[in-house]
Every structure is written in structure tokens, then in C-alpha cells.
Specification:
The chain is of the alpha/beta class and 179 residues long. 47% of the residues lie in helices and 16% in strands. The radius of gyration is 18 Å and the shape is globular. Bound molecules: zinc ion (ZN).
Length: 179
């Protein structure tokens, strides 16, 4: 026989599990939207990285990488989305937002995320050579700064990785054809 405490513990564990599943579903739903943004970059021959910012269960901003086409080092997906979100909310603080991005943010974008006080960041694929959400550095979670983000990684990670891999494969093929 289970004791009252055991039964209660079990109930709490089940509730937590349910909540986790619900969160995962939400994360995947919005990561799919970030992937849609990444596809826009892909279609114009940019490295396919996409981002959406969600507030109150609504997408308030979108962005995709346009570094080459805009000839700007600032034209990363996250910066574009942050700018749009700030414009929409009329505030530089994005305190009740969640940012979804298909690839682990670089040092510039991770810095902007911390500056905007975004509480939660959801990442698709990790970027071992340049990522600043745990790979090279973890700028999102440095306790020396006045803001530390919650972080989820690996959400639709395979899909996000696959889009990158395909992009670079095609780029190599194009280069080979030229040569
Ligand atoms: Zn970046």
C-alpha cells in the first residue's frame, strides 16, 4: 500500500510530467515558426537562421538572417526580431517574452538578448564553433551579469541542423560547379 505522502508525490510528479509535455509542445510549435523564418533566409541564399519572439502565446516579431543581402554584420535573425518586438511593444525591455531561434546565438545576439532582459530563450541546434549559449561561452547565463536567461536547447534540433547541413552542402556543390 502506498502512503498518503507517496500518493501525493506521485500526483505531483505526474502533473510535472504533463506540464513538461505541454511546454515541449509549445516549444516545438514556435520553433516550427522560427524554421519558417530560416527557410526565408535559405531561399535567398543566406545561412538559414530564423527567429520568432512570443508574448502571451502570440508571435509579436519575426526575423531571419540577411547578413549578405543587407551587407550588415548586424542583420542576424535575433537582432531583426528584437528590433521589431521593441517597436511593437514600445519598450526596449522584452521582459515577458520568449525568444525562439533555430541556431544557438552568437556573442552579439546573446548580448542583445541579455540587454533586452528576455527571460527565456529556446534554441534549436547548437553551434559548437561560435555559439554563446553554452558552446563557446554561455553569455545567456552568466551570474556576473544582472540578467540570466532560462534556456532550453535541442528543440527540433534535428530539423534545424538538417536545414543548415543542406544549405552548406548546396553551397559546396555550387562552388564546385563554378570551378
Ligand atoms: Zn547573432
Amino acid at each position: 500500500m502506498m502512503s498518503k505522502e507517496e500518493r501525493q508525490e506521485r500526483r505531483i510528479a505526474k502533473q510535472a510530467e504533463k506540464l513538461e509535455k505541454k511546454n515541449l509542445k509549445t516549444y516545438e510549435k514556435y520553433m516550427e515558426q522560427a524554421l519558417k523564418e530560416a527557410k526565408k533566409a535559405y531561399d535567398i541564399n543566406e545561412v538559414p537562421i530564423g527567429c520568432v519572439i512570443v508574448q502571451d502565446d502570440k508571435i509579436i516579431a519575426r526575423g531571419y538572417n540577411r547578413r549578405n543581402i543587407d551587407k550588415s554584420v548586424l542583420a542576424h535573425a535575433e537582432i531583426a526580431a528584437i528590433q521589431e518586438a521593441c517597436k511593437k511593444t514600445g519598450d526596449w525591455r522584452l521582459e515577458d517574452c520568449t525568444l525562439y531561434v533555430t541556431l544557438e546565438p552568437c556573442q552579439m545576439c546573446a548580448g542583445a538578448i541579455v540587454q533586452a532582459r528576455i527571460p527565456r530563450v529556446v534554441v534549436g541546434a547548437m553551434n559548437p564553433k561560435a555559439g554563446c549559449a553554452g558552446s563557446v561561452l554561455n553569455i545567456l547565463q552568466m551570474h556576473q551579469f544582472n540578467h540570466v536567461c532560462d534556456l532550453e536547447t535541442g528543440i527540433l534540433g534535428d530539423e534545424c541542423t538538417e536545414m543548415m547541413t543542406r544549405f552548406f552542402e548546396e553551397l559546396r556543390e555550387q562552388k564546385n560547379q563554378i570551378m
